[in-house]
Amino acid sequence: MNNKDNGNLIQLSMPRVAGIDLRKEMSERPYVVLGLGVVAGYVLGGGLFTRLTGRLLVTGLRAVALPLMTKAALNFVESAVQAQPEPAPNDTPAGTAPAV
User: Fold this and answer.
1) Does pTM surpass 0.85?
2) Is 16 helix (H, G, I), strand (E, B) or coil?
3) I want to staple 87 with a disulfide (CB 3.0 to 4.6 A). Which of 10, 52, 56, 91 is the partner?
């Protein structure tokens, strides 16, 4: 067998799926392809509706939601502080008598 035949065998064993060249993806991002394979095996093996999956989803959502909610709260406080008008130099604070 020469190199041309070997290349054709590789092409036959690595089809294009949904327009994606699997051989190229495996060479450029091997860990992503490996992770996708693990997830596909987990789902096909029946692990989708288990307690472990539920716990992993809840933990993942908490890990993602906490920074997002913190950032949203900080942006809200920052915009509220910036929207507050600054007092004019002649204004006196509420509850105090003007200087005579």
Assistant:
1) no
2) strand
3) 91
Higher-confidence residue: 72 or 14? 72
Identify the helix (H) or strand (E) that includes residue 21.
strand 20-21
Tokens representing 30? 């091997």
Domain ranges of the chain: 7-47, 49-79
* Distance in angstroms (rounded) separating the CA atoms of residues 84 and 79: 9
Distance CA(76)–CA(74), nearest Å, equals: 5
Structure tokens at 33: 């392809």
Helix (H, G, I), strand (E, B) or coil at 46: coil
If one counts every other C-beta atom within 10 angstroms of the C-beta of residue 41, the result is 10
Q: In degrees rounded to 5, what are phi and psi of residue 56?
A: -65, -40
Separation in Å, CA 42 to CA 29, 72, 93: 20, 35, 65
Classify residue 14 by its DSSP letter.
S
**Average pLDDT of span 75-91:** 77
